[in-house]
Write a structure and sequence with these properties.
By secondary structure, this protein is of the alpha/beta class. It is built from 16 helices and twelve strands. The structure holds glyoxylic acid.
Amino acid sequence: MSKPLTIADLKTMARRRVPKMFFDYADSGAWTESTYRANEDDFSRIKLRQRVLVDMTDRSLATTMIGHDVSMPVALAPTGLTGMQHADGEMLAAKAAEEAGVPFTLSTMSICSIEDVRSVTSKPFWFQLYVMKDRGFVERLIGRARAAGCSALVVTADLQILGQRHKDLRNGLSAPPKWTLNSAMQLATKPFWCLDMLRTSRRGFGNIVGHASNVSDLSSLSAWTAEQFDPRLSWDDIRWIKDLWGGKLIIKGILDEDDARAAADTGADAIIVSNHGGRQLDGALSSISMLPKIVAAVGDRLEVHLDGGVRSGQDVLKAVALGARGTFIGRPFLYGLGALGKPGVTAALEIIRKEMDITMALCGKRDIQDIDAGVIAENPFHA
Ligand code: GLV
């Protein structure tokens, strides 16, 4: 394929290069994948207002997220197993994000560790925390994130029990891949991926291997989450984490106004309106459809961010118009990474940046900070 022009182009390229179990891991949603599809589809139901004959020079997408300068309202979302889309994937993506002037969020379930990412970046990145039953391990993770200079902690609230993704079970997903006929066949057709992977030693869960005790099967995400994640996680734990961390805190996985109010009560700096990319509760509403209600409920108390379904700069603009201070992209950067490594992440970010810039201009606006509901012609998702 020639130069990728859209996130869909990067997805096509990634599908060719990345073994099926890892491409599918990124691409899948829970059960029927209806919420995964709704996240994308609902963006297209929002229509923009075309405005003409206004000065469109000197445009700016720069803004802030939780007080941090960003070159556009886009952060890289925490995604599990990123180092399986491409060897050393988290390190490459973090560097691409740094160069693009947007935040990178490292997942607890990453392949490269907090320390690996720290070793290749010069600006602080954000760290996403899953809360395990072993609170000592959680305390150590928070301490490692602090020692690495991470400038925000993103606590995920919606994955204490893993949603079932059929493809992962059928593909025999594990990191590193287990030596079965099924996985050998998936790897055999992806020689470039395999060659890169042979050159790195980072093939397991880098934040966990060697740091957590009493772990029986760490290569299987579903076994690990079922055994280690704490299904009793509560708002009191969020307060405990907030005190322990002492820095900027973002709560990820809020899709309900009452939960948004409870999140604001904790004193968190931001929430991410999210259904985990449709990977958890299949049948939940899309993120963008819930955004206006959640902004109306808590938008004056903390920043509201959004993830789920963002595939273009137009989507980012629509989310900002409906009140999101920033957005997170997961799959778009994973497709770029799988397709081309670090240049692919840069390509994903630049595709979105260009789309947002031109869309903003064609809406008659020059500064992302001036974008509000006035750029929307039709919105089926009112507060
Ligand atoms: C982990 O965050 C997952 O959705 O698989």
